[in-house]
What we know:
four-stranded parallel beta sheet, 36% helix
Amino acid sequence: MENQFFCQVNVWIETEDGLKQWLASFEDDPAFLKRSLYINLLDSVDSVETRAAVAAFCAKYPDNASAYAMPECAYAVCYNKVRGSAKAFKYVNYTTTAALVKASDLKRMDNQISGQRNIAAWSFYPVSVQPDGSHKPY
């Protein structure tokens, strides 16, 4: 059975700064986010700062987000935590806070592939935040 949402986004939180940038960039299309996306925030940092940012995001989008405190867990462990719920969604996105995926990127993807039954996977190049703070194609 397909979920009401178009896509599940599983975000591995790897740094405090990365989380802040990711959340800010992802909220570029709040209407699409609320209508079409479900976000799992997989917090491997689990600091006071990340817990506060995750809680604020979940409070702002209570029907669209879940938080998982997973201190010091690798991304594979975090992704496996939510793997079972992925089958309820038309598409699933696995990403990290280093890859600045925007809600509008996923909206564009939805617009481009809707009605095309033969597409099983889709890939695009998000922007990656480098350790020095610069942004480069991922």
